[in-house]
Queue: 2 jobs
Job 1
Amino acid sequence: MKEMLKITISLVVIFVSAGIIMAAVFAKTAPIMAEAQKREKEEALKRLMPEAEKITEAGKWEPLHKHAEYYEAKKGDETVGYIASTYGKGYSSYISILVATDSDIKVKKISILSHGETPGLGDEIEQEYFKKRFEGKTLEQLEVVKTETTDKIQAISGATISSRAVTNGVREAVRLLKEKYQGGKKDE
Amino acid sequence: MNNKSYWALIKNGIFAENPIFRVALSLCPAVAVTSGVKNGFLMGIAVLFVQTMVNVTISVIRNFIHPRVRIPSYMFVIATWVTVTDLLMAAFARDVYKQMGLYIQLIVAFAIILSRAELFASKNRVVPSFFDGLGMGIGFLFALVVISFFRELLGKGSIWGLHIVEFKPLLIMILPTGGFFAVGILMGLFNWIDIKFFGGTGASGGGH
């Protein structure tokens, strides 16, 4: 009985104090982290659309049941393009992506905000050469193939799942923007 | 203990009881993150830090940990340090975190850290535990850098992302298979050096 009490006290004290330490560190760091993430997103938006003078949020959507937004980029009164944030379900994580398109909803540039793919294989999606493969693509061209191509999206060898995840995310974003902006025009 | 024995503790971690080549612990990260020297190096640094801090903490509270629940207690100390490191880096070292964030959280499950807590830190005073953690961490870092050096060189023809040799790379060296090749061959090499020059008997092997 006394033994049991000792074990309990030992465990409880260790667990509770560890919990307090973690909670305290989290409470201190969470606002700084949120601030940094917000700033990084704004910077990423600007980098994607350097010619835009104003990027305003136009609405929210839910790719893969996650919260995401889309933006309109304007120069003066003219709309120069759209940006949507989107997600792809990769090999070991959700990949957070920003997609910038021109006013015809053709992909201009993409940016990988965060991911948890395998280092050395899946994290190749961050490389410029892969992101460049999306430039100028239309909705129909956003499809992964394993052979060498410039017409569609060529998968990274050793990282087909991650490549497909990014492509699917981008395709959903392009589809959304088409629906919101080009579909709307037809109805008028 | 004097300065000489501290140095012996560090050397022990690098060679005699090298976590990967000699004790054969934590082989998962040794295969998983060694496809490039940069990855291996960053992972090694993260482990070096966590191993040292965990050893010191366990050593400080070793008389308070009840022997019958010591493993959950160790796990909690490890998890706390990993979480704290992860949070602090995410908040204050964003650039480094972007590079290393992928690895930090994996450390919780590394056998080598739990193993040193049980075998060394729980039985020794704070200062020797610190040096043991340091030695094991450096040994781990060293092993990861050596493995990733060969894998990246053969698999991509580059070192730290810089191309240095032009040939069609052996993709298999980057894939997990190549990791097993590299770890196996280097482990054999270490055994050979040990037997040939130091009169050892080869690695005993933890087998985790």
Job 2
Amino acid sequence: MSYSEKLLEHYENPRNVGALDKSDRNVGTGLVGAPACGDVMKLQIKVGKDGIIEDAKFKTFGCGSAIASSSLATEWIKGKSVDEAETIRNTDIAQHLSLPPVKIHCSVLAEDAIKAAIKDYREKNSVAAAPEAATAK
Amino acid sequence: MSLELKTNIPEMNGQGGSARGTNAPKLPIYLDYQATTPCDPRVVEAMLPYFTEKFGNPHSRNHPYGWEAEEAVEKARRQVASIIGADEREVIFTSGATESNNLAIKGVMRFHKDQRNHMITTVTEHKCVLDSARHMEMEGVEVTYLPVQQNGLVDLEKLKAAITPKTALVSIMAVNNEIGVIQPLAEIGKICRERHVYFHTDAAQAVGKIPLDVNAMNIDLMSISGHKIYGPKGVGALYVRRKPRVRLEALIHGGGQERGLRSGTLPTPLCVGLGEACAIAQREMGAEAERLRFLRNRLLDGITKALPEVYVNGDLEQRIPGNLNLSFAYVEGEGLMMGIKNLSVSSGSACTSASLEPSYVLRALGVEEELAHTSIRFGLGRFTTEQEVDYAVEQVVGAVKRLRELSPLWEMAQEGIDIKSIEWSGH
């Protein structure tokens, strides 16, 4: 299988690898996928007072496409408002990285990770929040 | 190709690398010898005349062109027979081990199924055995798929218990293609002979790697591959015992060549190549196994000294020396392969398939799915050098360390979180 240069570049030099403090109220954490399926993504956002994502970090267990998809996702959401970040679609990621058809699920997982992180952030910041399964505790 | 390989010959039995006069090995490094092997230059040399000046049809009885081709094919047949302790009349040339396995399983079962319609195989067989067995199920044959133990070996008691008066055939591979484990062939053969059941073994990964003797091991049918033993692709053989005679139906009909079991003009150069490959392997097996065991242990030690949580899949003792199958916990196999792109290895992970299922062989050993996704098969062979192994260790250790820093599972493990306690969403 041949991969695009953009994908390989993200794999070789992934952006925003790391972790943010999960207990911080301004940090939303999304953990999606499953080890048994061969893909797990953890994506975190830190939201400023103005509702802008000021920092994003990720860690991914998966193939090169999964690593590149999550790296790209963090790059794209930084500096965006939470609402804007939510509009990122897996097809945008797949297209940007020229993912082969068998790797489209990696971009789906990245979109899910963004959404899960946003959901966690919103739940933390609303009174009626209840913790959801498959988000890091 | 042959010229390039010739430059490698001095390294074959040496300490490796020095012949090139440089410290950098030629990249990418081939470490996938269970997938296929390069033709040994000596094999190519033996084959060449049979493409051009000695091109006769080995079945032509009326002129010297036919005779010299026939002579070459019969010499090759003796060479193949010799490495497995068989009589040359018991060797049938085929297009490869896939055809041999098809012929053995379908041929024996179709011949016998009216009286005995049961066969036994194992869940870790090569796909061509499993698929042939499945195909026979559609023709009314009952198939028992034996499980294997955690080390990859069959449980002989389970085999004994599975044999019934209706059993015609037991088909158990000699050496597994993914994990390299060697099944207890002599014990299986003894059980089969006592119970009057044919014993077929797919020996594609075993011939030339371990000593085999069809009589001592009571093997009735054996599949052999050319390209796994430094011979050409497109040729293989099936050993079919004459005494007591194994009866089977042909798959390919025509001129009645190969005792009527495999019609079609024999490809003289390919037969010669397979024969020469067997002859070389038979001569050099002992020394080569010793050298490969040293290299394999060097690879394993180098990796496990530098990295925690690396697991060997399959029995390490009952294994061909050129195979190492490792799971690198918390690092997905395909992601790892991209990180060691200068090493041509195989991944037990199959993230590319729609099903996302990891290797069925590893799953059969009871390797958990998350660990099966982290496995890499290293195949060492005749042209692997010590310098290449050292380079491989360095590359693997570096990539695993980097990818573990990137892995949320590794992070959790470091924090003492049990990954199994998490309710994963899947996808």
